[in-house]
Amino acid sequence: MSVFLDELLTVCRFLVGGFFVWSGSSKFGNPAMFWSQIMGYQITGAGVSRVLAAVIPPLEFMCGLFFASGMLPLVPGIILLILLGVFCIAITVSLVRKADNDCGCGPKSSKVSPLHLVRNALLAALVVAGLFSPPLHYVGDYVVASCGALIIIGASIYRWRMLNR
Q1: Which domain holds residue 52?
Q2: Positive or negative CA dihedral for 90, 92, 95, 96?
Q3: What does residue 71 show for φ and ψ, rounded to 5 degrees?
Q4: Any idea where the Methylamine utilisation protein MauE domain is (predicted)?
Q5: Which of 12, 22, 77, 164 is least surrounded by Cβ atoms within 10 Å, i.e. has the fewest?
Q6: Which pTM does this prediction carry?
């Protein structure tokens, strides 16, 4: 590959990773609000919505961080694509039902709209492009990835406990 294409793909990986770091971190402060936004989709029950509200923000944050850094980008890239796909399904269901719910995308209230589907398609394209960027090799990358997984688990448990108070 040419150097320019490698750099362009790396920028794609960095941009989409940064978006998910922002998206995940913007949901950390108020798990109850994110839980109510998930409940607004009326797809899952209260228990499953609590699990999703506890797990999604740390997962978005850490996968975005790992994807942007280029450390083992395949696994976080696939997870981000799955999150985008599930979110597109939830948006589509909401649009078909003509529901007037908040998307739960970030710190500001934003009603579900077809533009969210367009944005997610662009983000998915950036993830796929980022998967083709040149891999970066770090010393101890599996140790760091394991620590990231522990952070996701710990943050999810903490958020779960906050939601069940």
Answers
A1: 1-164
A2: negative
A3: -85, 115
A4: 7-132
A5: 164
A6: 0.90
Print burial letters for 89-114: b (CB count within 10 Å at least 16), e (below 16): ebbeebeeeeeebbbbbeeeeeebee
Residues 32-50: tens digit of each pLDDT: 899 999 999 999 999 999 9
Residue with tokens 């899952």: 44
Closest by CA to 102, choosing from 45, 29, 42, is: 42
What does the pLDDT read at residue 128? Answer: 96
Q: Residue 71's beta-bridge partner residues?
A: 136
Q: Which residue has the higher pLDDT, 72 or 51?
A: 51
CA distances from 119 to 72, 104, 105, 113, 152 (A): 25, 14, 11, 10, 25
If one counts the domains in the chain, the total is 1
151, amino acid identity = I
**pLDDT value of residue 1:** 55
